[in-house]
Design brief:
The protein contains six helices and 16 strands. Helix content is 20%, strand content 29%.
């Protein structure tokens, strides 16, 4: 990957390392890896030490070498629904039942396996950098960076709350209030490596929701996350007595749907390179649409 910038007036006289870290989002780890793996930083076409100073108008060029893929992560020609793609990132509209990355339980057939095959067709020597991960049985939009520099930039945006995701969920039970917020910390459930639970010693977790439709048995919600903890939506609604329909891990029943009724339907963020505001939407899959129709 090759990226070029012209040093701005306000950065005149900065140390190159600081310029890359503070102005261009390079982490200390990424700079170290780039140098260790033979990547280059050029200033006005010449090799330049990271401790050197840059001047306004200098041309700074970073060259990252091709990324090495893990030996266990194999390319598989699996169809993907790609909503958007450019040289830097892509948006996948994930089906339910498909894991995002391989695990012991799901060693193949994942979004990551499919992406490697997609990259191979493009001649892109990169590995998979998932920015917004979804559980296997959650459907909807997934943001993926095409190299580790873009991943680093998007991770900073995500931590700053600048990547917005909205979900639609069907939960069990009826709500009296039209909208509310769940602000309860989440940590690992004692004795489990998979489950999470509300835990006073856990990490801050904030979930906003509004009720779109409700009957005596089920409620359709629009859910927006302020934080992004593992299983956050599933844990929060289970804790307040409204587990997601189909979510057997957290107390939901399967009489209405056979997987957790959760879909990431909207994703918006600023492009890390162009600065363009991007907005993407995904239609609800048929199983959740059918469940909603049955609520009438």
């Amino acid at each position: 990957m090759r990226t070029v910038w012209i040093v701005e007036q306000e950065a005149d006289g900065e140390v190159l390392k600081n310029y890359l870290r503070e102005n261009k989002g390079f982490s200390r780890r990424l700079l170290k890896a780039m140098k260790a793996e033979g990547g280059k930083v050029l200033v006005n076409g010449l090799d330049y030490p990271l401790s050197g100073l840059v001047s306004s108008g200098d041309k700074v060029e970073c060259i990252l070498l091709s990324e090495e893929r893990g030996h266990t992560l194999l390319a598989e020609p699996i169809p993907l629904s790609i909503k958007f793609e450019d040289d830097y990132l892509l948006i996948v509209d994930k089906l339910p039942g498909m894991a995002v990355i391989p695990s012991r339980q799901h060693p193949s057939g994942t979004v990551a396996n499919a992406l490697l095959a997609h990259y191979d067709k493009q001649g892109l020597n990169s590995t998979v950098h998932v920015v917004t991960r979804l559980d296997k049985d959650t459907s909807g939009l997934v943001l993926v960076a095409k190299n580790r520099y873009i991943h680093s930039l998007l991770s900073v945006s995500q931590k700053a709350g600048q990547i917005s995701r909205t979900y639609e969920a069907v939960v069990e039970g009826h709500f009296e209030e039209e909208a509310s917020t769940i602000d309860l910390p989440i940590g690992r459930k004692e004795g489990s490596i998979i489950e999470r639970a509300v835990n006073n010693e856990g990490q801050e977790a904030v979930t906003h929701y509004k009720v779109l439709r409700s009957n005596n048995h089920l409620s359709l919600l629009s859910v927006k996350l302020e934080t992004g903890r593992t299983h956050q939506i599933r844990v929060h609604f289970s804790h307040i007595g409204h587990p997601l329909a189909g979510d057997t891990l957290y107390g939901g029943g399967t009489e209405y749907i056979k997987r957790q009724a959760l879909h990431c339907e909207h994703l918006s963020f600023s492009h890390p390179v162009t600065g363009e505001d991007l907005h993407f939407s995904s239609d609800l899959p048929e199983d959740i649409q059918l469940l909603i129709r049955e609520m009438n």
